[in-house]
Specification:
By secondary structure, this protein is mainly alpha-helical. The protein has a domain at about 60-230: MetI-like (MetI-like fold, Orthogonal Bundle). It has helices spanning about 1-30, 50-55, 60-90, 100-110, 115-125, 135-155, 160-170, 175-200, 205-210, 220-225, 230-260. The longest helix is centred in the first third of the chain and has 34 residues, at about 60-90. The radius of gyration is 23 Å and the shape is globular. Pfam families: BPD_transp_1.
Length: about 260
């Protein structure tokens, strides 16, 4: 009886934590359908699809979202390419400074965003670099690069080297071996790192607020509109972003199951 009671308590506690974590998402989705009649969007005033039809009615909000998507796409591409190369080097090869490189990778992950943002701001100011989308993109590449490196490196470490050796024995060159053997084998890690980099970029606020200059991203726009009232389009955009992320995760899980 004690064991059964403990299991029930553990199950109940687990569902309680899940409910706590999903409550903000549910509220966001719900208030995307709120028939708002005033500046405040904190009370339910009726059900409507109006805001989905007027999703891009606020040009400043749309511009901020476009900026976030541009930065996220560019930084994800750069981070994935550089991080995959670094992950391959750290996971496959032994070279002088490998231990220091591994330390720096994990140090970047553990560094508080406040410290990273302040240090990047000092770097750009000392170099007289105009702050804008370019500096935001550079900052996002720097703080998300380590996550891609760690993800790809873990996949490379588990890769059977005999597969590459067999390809070389059959006459494949270095590039052919990488393209036909190594890259397909580590692709799940590469895709996971890319998705993680995109997610970190699209919702970053702390680091971006240090290096944005006069450019606004989606999170910065939302924070700036808190005093005057957050429009319901924000909830709609957040719902769509969340839905796309869930769809990608489900598609990835289905694809992985089929490959297995």
């Amino acid at each position: 009886m004690t064991g059964k009671l403990g299991d029930r308590l553990l199950h109940g506690y687990t569902w309680l934590i899940i409910a706590w974590l999903t409550a903000p998402i549910i509220v966001m989705i719900m208030f995307g359908f709120n028939d708002k009649q005033s500046k405040s969007n904190t009370s339910w005033q009726g059900f409507t699809f109006r805001w989905y039809g007027e999703l891009f009615a606020d040009s400043s909000l749309t511009g901020a979202l476009v900026n976030s998507l541009q930065v996220a796409v560019v930084s994800t591409v750069l981070t994935t390419v550089i991080g995959t190369a670094l992950g391959l080097a750290l996971g496959r090869h032994r070279f002088r400074g490998r231990g220091v490189s591994n330390f720096l990778v994990f140090a970047a992950i553990s560094t508080p965003e406040l410290v990273m943002g302040a240090s990047l701001l000092s770097l750009f100011v000392s170099g007289n670099t105009p702050r804008g989308l370019a500096t935001i993109t550079i900052a996002h590449v720097l703080f998300s690069l380590s996550f891609v490196v760690v993800t790809v490196r873990a996949r490379v470490v588990g890769l059977d080297p005999s597969l590459e050796e067999a390809a070389r024995d059959l006459g494949a060159g270095t590039w052919t071996t990488f393209r036909l053997v190594t890259l397909p084998a580590i692709m799940p890690g590469v895709l996971a790192g890319a998705l993680l980099a995109f997610a970190l970029s699209i919702d970053d606020y702390v680091v971006t607020s240090f290096v944005n200059g006069n450019q606004l991203t989606f999170p910065l726009w939302i924070m700036g509109s808190v005093k005057v009232g957050i429009p319901p389009q924000v909830n709609v955009m957040g719902t769509l972003i969340f839905g796309i992320g869930v769809a990608i995760a489900i598609a990835n899980a289905v694809a992985s199951r089929r490959r297995a």
